[in-house]
Amino acid sequence: MLRSISMKNRNLLATSVGVALIGLGAMATAQAANYVVMTHGNGLSSTQQERIRAAGGTITAHLPQIGVAIVEAGDGFDAAAGAIPGLQSVTRDVTLDWDIAEPDSAPIAAEDFANPPGSGDDDRFYDLQWGNAAVDAAGAWNAGYRGAGATVAVLDSGAYCAHLDIAPNLIGGASFVPGETFCNTSGSSHGTHVAGSILAADNATGTIGVAPEAKLLAVKVLSAATGSGDFAGIIQGMVWAVDNGANVINMSLGVRGGLPRSGPGANELSELINATKRAVQYAGKNEVLVVASAGNDGRDLDHDASTMSFPGQLPGVLTVSALAPEGWAIDPTVDLDPLASYSNYGQSTIHFGAPGGDTRYPGNELCTVGPVTQVCWIFDAVFSTVQVSGGSSFYGWNAGTSMAAPHVAGVAALVYGKHPGIKASQVESILKRSADDVGKPGRDDASGFGRVNAARAVQY
């Protein structure tokens, strides 16, 4: 039977993922820390490396591709290393605390395609995936495009690598969280949920991702145990993904409330943001599309000059707002494209809208969709793959812009699969031209250029 769902979980689902900045003051007294070092050139020279070691630093990662190095050192290293010629900046890294509500889960009980809820598909929980109906994934599959030949890197909290819907498409991964591997058997299910929405295999088991034949690189940049992560991990994860064959990078993460543009710590943050920009630019130069969630603060990003949505407002990132129905289990013909109650918005930032889910339906009556009977409002959230402690192939609901970005990444994977060697700018153009204009004509605050449409995207 399904795990019971409480009203407490209902409240959490609507703000399922965010990141809060911690440690700006506390970290300054730490005895050892990571520093992000940027050069003016492509990498550290041998002399610069020697000077860093002489200043008490240990280089733990050198990324000459983007002119960045990660250095472990004690207090005062930034001042000492700042005198080394040729360095642009030496900045103590900042830890991000990931505030996430875990999905509510359901265990598994033991070729034309149609969209949910009446698909007749043999993947038992597919009919719960209204998000695939919203983007018309079945239309792309019927045209013969399922993501084969494309690789998606999910920068997140890792994945449950043995999940029956994840394992068939997993080809590798890496962890940039000390002491943790990219494969989880406990802790956060967020990365598993995101990966499943993108590329859960069509294997007559549970769910089906938008691009069920795309391949997965699971890149851990957030701890599955503590929910924390830092800029260094995200930067390294992006470079690793590019160098290991990703076509699409999905970053379903964001800073709750945004990063401050001014005030205490803002100068240091600006250098860390600049280092991350270099990683995004590196992806673009290598024809890798970067997709990110817009954030769950309900903020108007056009008129909030005091904070920055991160990484959503980085140049070169496709930023995705969350859309959601209200009462879909009661009436599957209900509009799937209203802006979710929690989603950030703003014409200058949002590129696309996509299914992110919501829990705003007010009733508590029961509904049945496919094999599942539950309170009706839960079906308006996004259903995908998760794991439970100890490892098991579970499925569950979650809602957030974190759930929206994977639908865009999945459609992008379909396009990369159809067009081997295509440029990232061309993929972006196809996504824009094929999107359904669900808001006011043209680009709008809620859904940008529109809600992505998989069936139309593969027609280009």
From TrEMBL:
Entry keyword annotation includes Signal: yes
Any one Gene Ontology molecular-function term assigned to this protein's record: serine-type endopeptidase activity
Residue ranges of every copy of the Peptidase S8/S53 domain listed in the record: 147-450
Pfam families: Peptidase_S8
Family annotation (InterPro entries): Peptidase_S8/S53_dom (IPR000209), Peptidase_S8/S53_dom_sf (IPR036852), Peptidase_S8/S53_subtilisin (IPR051048), Peptidase_S8_His-AS (IPR022398), Peptidase_S8_Ser-AS (IPR023828), Peptidase_S8_subtilisin-rel (IPR015500)
Lineage of producing organism: Bacteria, Pseudomonadati, Pseudomonadota, Gammaproteobacteria, Lysobacterales
Gene Ontology process terms (BP): proteolysis
Family: Belongs to the peptidase S8 family.
PROSITE patterns xrefs: SUBTILASE (PS51892), SUBTILASE_HIS (PS00137), SUBTILASE_SER (PS00138)
Keywords, comma-separated and alphabetical: Hydrolase, Protease, Serine protease, Signal
Signal sequence, start to end: 1-32
Active site: residue positions: D156, H190, S402
Keyword Protease listed: yes
Coiled coil: none
Identification of the protein by name: S8 family serine peptidase
Gene3D superfamilies hit by this protein: Peptidase S8/S53 domain
